[in-house]
Amino acid sequence: MEDTRQTGNLALTRVEQVMQVLRERIAARALAAGARVPSIRMMSEQIGVSKSTVVEAYERLVAEGALIARRGSGFFVAAHALPGGRGEFGAYGAFAARGPMGAMGAMGATGPRLDREIDPLWLTRQSLETDARALRPGCGWLPASWLPQDAVRRALRAIARDPHAQLTDYASPLGLPALRQQLAWRLAQHGVEAAPEQIVLTDGGSQALDILCRFLLEPGDTVVVDDPCYFNFQALLRVHRVKVVSVPYTPTGPDLAAFERVLAEHRPRLYVTNSAIHNPTGATLAPTVAHRLLKLAEEHNLLIVEDDIFADFETHPAPRLAAFDGLARVVAIGSFSKTMTAAARCGYIAARTDWIEPLVDLKLSVSFGNGELAADLVQRLLVDGTYRRYLDGLRAKLADAMGETLRRLACAGVTAWTRPQAGMLLWAQLPDGLDAALVAREALAHGVVLAPGNVFSVSRGAGSFLRFNVSQCNRPKVYETLQRAMERAVEAKAQPA
Fold first, then answer.
1. Which residue numbers delimit the HTH gntR-type domain (predicted)?
2. 433 shares a domain with 297
3. Which domain holds residue 461?
4. Are residues 72 and 179 in the same domain?
5. Three-state SS string across the chain, please?
6. Total number of domains in the chain
7. Is the pTM of this model over 0.85?
8. Could you tell me if residue 390 is inside a domain?
9. pLDDT tens-digit profile of 28-84?
């Protein structure tokens, strides 16, 4: 492990020390654009570190664009400004002036636009672009500290040591056979019978849905979604230039009367939904609703994509449309981004046998395969028992967080639409018909990312709702900021137009 030395309150590795020295010299104009930096031997002697440490520091600065390397001549200060527009050398001058923690301040200064229209991608941008110190009760993923990071590290080390692990080549067209076998077994636990040859690995659930849209839809087709539904369903479907219509969602599934009317009026080609732990409501599909839904689908020649990304949060398995249907007109997709790691994207499609070849061809045409390293990582965590033990603890933590969040929201006057049986998502209504978008903007200005309801609603009929992620709601500031934001919304509502 690299040695570290203390600089103020921040422990810097020796490599980072060398990098900082050069950044400071560049910022102070001691090294001008195009100037040759000290040789590796000279810098090693000046700072008292090994030559290999200097080499690594120089290489990192080359990768960042601060230096350029010339074969046989050494390293030189880059002649062009770096992105960021802070003087001749971009952000580095500001970095040196602010000290080691300056980069965090710079991130806050270049965060997301607060005046952007609230649309299906608004929430993603806020969650990913805000300062790292922001709180994210509206995001759709677990805190990093809740995820099995140590297990992921162990698996990565095991892969690196395994002489048979595939680290550099393309994956097979269907994806890692051992993982597809494991997925077939896991699907069978939910009543979905799919042979490994019926499973195609993808780089996450979003790619799985994108491939299916390319395969099943033409521009101008109609697709039905739940209202509310996962906001990225809307964003992705619009990329494919289809018409999106919606059906109200209830605590037991879609409103069947409204669903039948939509089928008769719009003749949609496809229905995209979650059945187990619905996003954003946390509701669960009832068996009677599932049976009637499939009968309507058969009568109207409707295809269904069932996104099962939250399956591993369940404590008691919910009905699966793909299980009742036998993968005849239902396609099951899923991934491990929410429960294992979003950094190694690994998802899947389970579909009828005659669709597999064209789906594989589509996957190859748009991505030339999927990540074998990510698939190997997921496979190892699934088979050694680590993931199962982790899930047992995670479900208990989520149940506790759900209870606490429900209690705190009730105290604030926010009403839960239903109490989810499992998972991390909670759909709740603000008091007095307050505008959730206005509340979310006010909260964002104070470093708290909320999820306003109309982001999830095609009909824009969820204006007073918010989606909460209970795993991200364990800080008092979340509720303090929510309360202040609601008070501001009340004041704005009372003002004359």
1. 12-80
2. no
3. 112-140+395-494
4. no
5. CCCEEEECCEEEEHHHHHHHHHHHHHHCCCCCCCCECCCHHHHHHHHCCCHHHHHHHHHHHHHHCCEEEECCCEEEECCCCCCCCCCCCCHHHHHHHHCCCHHHHHHHHCCCCCCCCCCCCHHHHHHHHCCCCCECCCCCCCCHHHCCHHHHHHHHHHHHHCCCCCCCCCCCCCCCHHHHHHHHHHHHCCCCCCCHHHEEEECCHHHHHHHHHHHHCCCCCEEEEEECCCHHHHHHHHHCCCEEEEEEEECCEECHHHHHHHHHHHCCCEEEECCCCCCCCCCCCCHHHHHHHHHHHHHCCCEEEEECCCHHHCCCCCCCHHHHHCCCCEEEEEECCCCCCCCCCCEEEECCHHHHHHHHHHHHHHHCCCCHHHHHHHHHHHHCCHHHHHHHHHHHHHHHHHHHHHHHHHHCCCEECCCCCCCCEEEEECHHHCCHHHHHHHHHCCCECCEEHHHCCCCCCCCCEEEEEHHHCCCHHHHHHHHHHHHHHHHHHHCCC
6. 3
7. no
8. no
9. 788 888 899 999 999 999 989 999 999 999 988 987 788 998 888 899 998 754 443
